[in-house]
Amino acid sequence: MARPTTAARRYAEAVFELAKRDDSLDTWRDDLRAINEMLGDERVIRVVDNPSLPFAERREVIDELLGGRTGKPAQNLVTVLAERSRLDLVPAIVVEYQRLLNRERGIATAVVTSAAALNKEETAALEERLRQMTGSDVELEVRIDERLIGGLTVRVGDRLLDASVRGRLERLRDQLVAGVR
Fold it and tell me: Alpha carbon 144 to chain centroid distance?
């Protein structure tokens, strides 16, 4: 996962501090997700991020779109981002806010990459095993990468567990090359 930009991280940290102060961590999480979903629509982004339209008109569109879906503080955030032409930061802000929320709640994020989709039983068993290893709750982010051939890799923080066929073959190749010299 790419590191968020400094600007996105700063916005997320500011929002997180406001959410902690107001005891609205989950509300902000939901609002940020709703904003991200709304801005994922190409038609919406063309209007609210269009510098040829007067900002007052764009602000009205933002207020109308978010009126019943998010709280006023979240609307203010979108307005500030639109005014500064930084709406492109929203996806990174959402990711960074979730990371801060998970850290606050003692939840470890594990990125699981497998060669094929995992079924519910495999996912549950993996979550339980990672919970035992980390000593905290675990949130899985599952990805598919057919280049692994088989098996999976798990990244928790800065630790990487490689149980993939591709990883085993690479380690075997390295051992064979090292033994030849």
Answer: 16
pLDDT band at residue 125 under the 50/70/90 scheme:
very high
**SS3 call for 118:** coil
Domain boundary among 102, 135, 160: 102
pTM of the model: 0.73
Whether the CB-CB separation of 111 and 143 falls below 8 Å is answered with yes
Domain containing residue 117: 107-180
Same domain, 29 and 58: yes
Residue 180 has pLDDT above 80, yes or no: no
Single out the residue of 93, 85, 123 nearest to residue 19, CA to CA.
93
The three-state secondary structure class of 51 is coil
Q: CA angle, 31 as apex, 28 and 32 as ends, to 5°? A: 85
